[in-house]
Amino acid sequence: MIKGMTGYGTAEISVGQVKVTIEVKSLNHRFFDLNHFLPIGFGSIENKIQQLVKKNVQRGRVTVAVKILERPLQAISLNKEAVKVYIKQAKVLKSEFGLKSDLTVADLIKLPGVVETKEVLVSPSKIWPEIKKGIEKALKSLVDMRKREGLSLNRDVQDKLKEMKLQIRAINKQSKLLLKSNRQKLSEDEFKSFQKSSDINEEISRLSHYIDELKSLLKATAPVGKKIDFIAQEMQRETNTIGSKVQDKIVSNAVINLKSKIEKIREQAQNIE
After folding, report:
1. Which among 33, 161, 175, 197 is most buried, taking Cβ atoms within 10 Å?
2. Which of 20, 22, 25 is CA-nearest to residue 5?
3. For 202-241, what is each residue's pLDDT tens digit?
């Protein structure tokens, strides 16, 4: 069954003191387009993410965001040499200006360069196995959502195809009535000319074939959005030919209705993977 291109999935993983959230979302796009939003230093897993996504999504603009929510506490160190300098200078000031107050530990910690903190780096290679599981979980939710959209799109296109069949029958019926009517009105040569110029059997046959082809594509599991769009373009071409060959109010109205349904199918093709 066809799939849509709109989807969303999320997952959270934990590895020791590291907590990561993963979001995967997809929107309509003519081709496959993948964007990453990764923590600094995680560029090495871009190709791995792309391989995972491409196993599940063949068309659409996909965004994968990996965010570190929690990480190990920062490493804190005390610069004792800086403390010695501050204390020495404090004694000089105290002696020179007759100051009474002494430096406390709280005062020293606040001074620049006394306490140094270093960010603990998270190694992407160490947590990749869990990130992979998280992305796979998020992708499953995304694909399930795209499948549900596909069911809705399938119903809508099927309805349009049924309406198209009704219009084709009306055109075919009216075309035969016109032939019968003109046979009585026109001379033999005039009728032959009219019959030749207004013959739409080939166009109606192609339209019927295209409808069957679209019904078959709607059952496919592989991406078919581009194929559906192409066939809809061919349908428009055949419908335009019918409109130019048969100058009749009933046929013209049916042609307008046909073109309207085909255009809506083309619009829906932009939503189908």
Report:
1. 175
2. 25
3. 999 999 999 999 999 999 989 999 999 999 999 999 999 9
